[in-house]
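User: Design a sequence. Structure:
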């Protein structure tokens, strides 16, 4: 696979690798995604908007430059924005590979940070020298204003031009912004996708899940991803999922974040209920999916948490073949890359 270098959400030549429930693989144009859906299917997408979660500034005790990447918070409420988990880097920017970024100065609870117009304090270190709990000074409106004027989208070196916020908002994004990295599987959709789906009898619903950072550049910290992430499921979406199951139709997740949110909501007894929650589980080959029957996702490299989640849909042998096919056919990876559609295998079911 090769990294997609341009911030184009729906390029004309986007490719789609399809894995059916028997493990058979084929290649399609991504524009043919709707042809894979059956009448009665329920498509569930993540409508989370993306924060300008990269903040450059200064570590006040040392006077050294830093970059703070907001990693998550425990609530989706717009007025509960004073506290974040965050990953802190030393000097540098997105043009340097995340793995090569220098560490920050030694951090300690109580350290003050100056982040453009924003002021924050490290409340505690979260069992890793670069992962902290951060508290912002000021009222919610002042913090939102500071993020809007000073923050930038989190960016990685495979895209060489500076991203704008509209590059990382999916077409279905709502407000307020809650995701640190974009729920990029949703780039494959736009509002023009919905009328043909409706015409074919395909249902559509959304959840909101605060997608966290996809990479920190530190192997130990990356091994802890994904971090805990809040989600919200509306009453209408919970009802749509229940009705889909009652009529024997499939639930199709657009992205790993949707899988994580829905399966977290169903962890107790398999029933998805409306409301807010915190996704704390890591989904992989030992997980049993209770709700989701298939997923449209980006292409992911082995060793990442997104790739490991694919193991809940099919076996390791099939995933090995999938990876070989993605490489042989020059699929593009990362957030602006190509896609995979994978159905829950009969064996996993």
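Assistant: Done.
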């Amino acid at each position: 696979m090769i990294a997609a270098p341009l911030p184009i959400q729906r390029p004309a030549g986007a490719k789609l690798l399809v894995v059916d429930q028997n493990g058979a693989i084929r290649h399609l144009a991504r524009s043919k995604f709707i042809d894979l859906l059956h009448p009665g299917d329920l498509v569930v997408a993540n409508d989370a908007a993306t924060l300008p979660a990269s903040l450059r500034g200064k570590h006040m005790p040392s006077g050294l430059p830093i970059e703070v990447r907001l990693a998550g918070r425990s609530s989706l409420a717009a007025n509960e924005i004073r506290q974040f988990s965050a990953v802190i880097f030393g000097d540098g920017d997105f043009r340097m590979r995340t793995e090569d970024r220098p560490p920050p100065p030694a951090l300690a609870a109580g350290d003050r940070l100056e982040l453009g117009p924003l002021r924050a304090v490290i409340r505690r270190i979260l069992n890793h020298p670069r992962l902290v709990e951060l508290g912002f000074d000021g009222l919610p409106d002042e913090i939102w204003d500071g993020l809007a004027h000073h923050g930038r989208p989190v960016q990685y070196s495979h895209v060489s031009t500076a991203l704008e916020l509209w590059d990382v908002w999916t077409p279905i994004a709502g407000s307020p912004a809650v995701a640190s990295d974009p729920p990029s599987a949703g780039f494959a959709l736009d509002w023009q996708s919905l009328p043909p789906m409706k015409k074919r009898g395909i249902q559509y619903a959304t959840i909101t899940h605060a997608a966290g950072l996809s990479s920190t550049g530190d192997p130990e910290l990356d091994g802890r991803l994904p971090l805990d992430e809040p989600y919200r499921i509306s009453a209408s979406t919970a009802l749509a999922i229940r009705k889909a199951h009652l009529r024997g139709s499939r639930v199709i997740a657009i992205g790993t974040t949707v899988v994580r949110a829905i399966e977290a909501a169903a962890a107790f007894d398999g029933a998805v209920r409306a409301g807010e929650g915190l996704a704390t589980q890591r989904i992989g080959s030992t997980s049993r999916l209770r709700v989701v029957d298939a997923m449209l996702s980006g292409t992911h490299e082995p060793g990442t948490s997104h790739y490991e989640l694919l193991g809940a849909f099919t076996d390791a042998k099939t995933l090995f073949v999938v990876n070989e096919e993605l490489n042989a056919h020059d699929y593009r990876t990362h957030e602006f890359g190509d896609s995979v559609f994978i159905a829950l295998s009969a064996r996993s079911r």
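The first strand starts at residue 2 and ends at 3. Residues 120 and 194 are 42 Å apart (CA to CA).
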